[in-house]
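In this section we walk through a basic example: taking a raw amino acid sequence and producing a predicted 3D structure, encoded as discrete structure tokens. The instruction is simple. Fold the sequence below.
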Amino acid sequence: MKTSINHLPDTKQHELAFVVDCLRKGFAFAIGRRTMPRLRGGRLLKIILFGSYARGDWVEDPVGRYFSDYDLLVVVDREELTDVPEFWARTEEELLGELADGRNLRTPVSLIYHSLDDVNEKLRLGRYFFMDIVREGVVLFEEPGHPFAEPKPLSPAEALKETEEYFEEWFESATTFFETSIDLRSKQRPKEAAFLLHQATERFYHCLFLVQTLYSPKTHNLNQLRQLAEGIEPRLKDVWPRSTNCERRSYDLLRDAYVKARYSRQYRISDEQLRWLADRVGMLQAIVRELSEARIAKRAEAA
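The resulting token sequence is shown next.
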């Protein structure tokens, strides 16, 4: 794997060094407070930059209010250490605070966590997402003596079968949530409609990842899913315009709906906002369908 980020401006290199330092210190603090034998001696093994900043095609567009994230894969030595609330939430909150402050960090950070065994298993199973990270990623931190497994690409027939199964399962599920949300909006049940719109959006993104890469991140965070998806297909940036306060507020209500639409009595969303969100989710649905069918056709040709 690559080990140099000299293709990035000095400011970006300094930011990434700061992020790595925060992750290492945050993990050391979290693991140092654990006394259970199964967690004792837990280790942070690798921090790898992938995505647009690793490839060199990142975007910073102040006019369109779009900025690429630093996409980072954090690799630990056991699965228990990938638990975000237990080991990483404090550090993620610190990074958000630093981003808001703007002195040490001005670029958003998107993090995924996996154990070394899990990454190696996915490489042995031919998961394109991790194969791309191994091919294009840049190692920012690494403990010696913990190599990745040699990737084993799937046969064309195997890749086609898995792709078709993922599309059938996830696109149908996302569409059901989407259609049910519209029905609930017509019945004037806005909070439930908002929650199901969130679920539909999340599942359309997961469908895209699974069809394109045979992998999807374990998260309900729409911002993270959106950023990763837009890295796969730039057209998806048009799904969520952010040029007006109304557009930004509506998206924020969708993002918050996973928790607040279910549990907060203060959560409010108007029919107009729900209608706008449904139009955007419909656009997402159409693009995911088009991309998925194109991927299936391409793999069918190869098989």
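Looking at the output, two observations stand out. Residues 174 and 242 are 24 Å apart (CA to CA). Strands lie at 44-50, 60-61, 66-67, 70-76, 109-115, 138-142. In the next section we compare this with other chains.
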